[in-house]
Design the sequence.
């Protein structure tokens, strides 16, 4: 298995868009890795349990001080929460800032200046989630890594996100191979 890398390295080094898969246990982590996932996402589970099953980068959705985050490579910080950002740094975790609108994005860039942004349409129940993510991507400065949180993404959605310049997509799909595809799309 490859050495454990930082999440930002895994996202920026690969060809095309990176697929990050939410998993619930070690067997799901193994299956996601086998199908071509570039990273794993954990919510409410211990990173240590999954770390034994896969060497892919682990992004934890809990708070930086959460005991379950121990063993993860990165942690999600919701919005421009400076306190949570500093806690992630103290825990030596890479911070990924989740933003849901242009105002949160602007504040996060001003107050924290993260390297990785998780663009989310979860808090906005109206509108097209893919369209909202693409609109947010438009405001992400060059040099920042952007991950779309589109848990029910289709292969067409992933292709559209890639064409638009998204660096990664967080999905909960059991069919990672169907999202990864064989050939990169024409851009």
Sequence:
């Amino acid at each position: 298995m490859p050495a454990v890398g930082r999440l930002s390295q895994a996202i920026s080094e690969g060809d095309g868009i990176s697929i990050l898969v939410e998993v619930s246990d070690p067997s799901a982590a193994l299956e996601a890795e086998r199908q071509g996932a570039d990273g794993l996402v954990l919510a409410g589970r211990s990173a240590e349990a999954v770390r034994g099953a896969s060497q892919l980068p682990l992004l934890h959705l809990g708070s930086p001080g959460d005991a379950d985050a121990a063993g993860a490579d990165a942690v999600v910080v919701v919005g421009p929460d400076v306190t949570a950002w500093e806690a992630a740094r103290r825990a030596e975790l890479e911070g990924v800032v989740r933003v849901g609108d242009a105002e949160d994005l602007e504040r996060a860039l001003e107050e924290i200046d993260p390297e990785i942004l998780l663009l989310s349409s979860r808090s906005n129940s109206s509108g097209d989630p893919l369209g909202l993510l693409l609109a947010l991507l438009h405001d992400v400065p060059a040099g920042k890594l952007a991950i779309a949180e589109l848990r029910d993404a289709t292969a067409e959605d992933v292709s559209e996100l890639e064409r638009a310049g998204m660096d990664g997509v967080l999905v909960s799909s059991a069919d990672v191979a169907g999202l990864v595809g064989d050939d990169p799309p024409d851009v």
Q: What stands out?
A: Residues 7-175 form a domain with the TIM Barrel fold (CATH 3.20.20.70). Helices lie at 7-13, 26-34, 47-51, 82-90, 102-111, 129-138, 155-164, 176-180. DSSP finds eight helices and eight strands in the chain. The first strand starts at residue 18 and ends at 23.
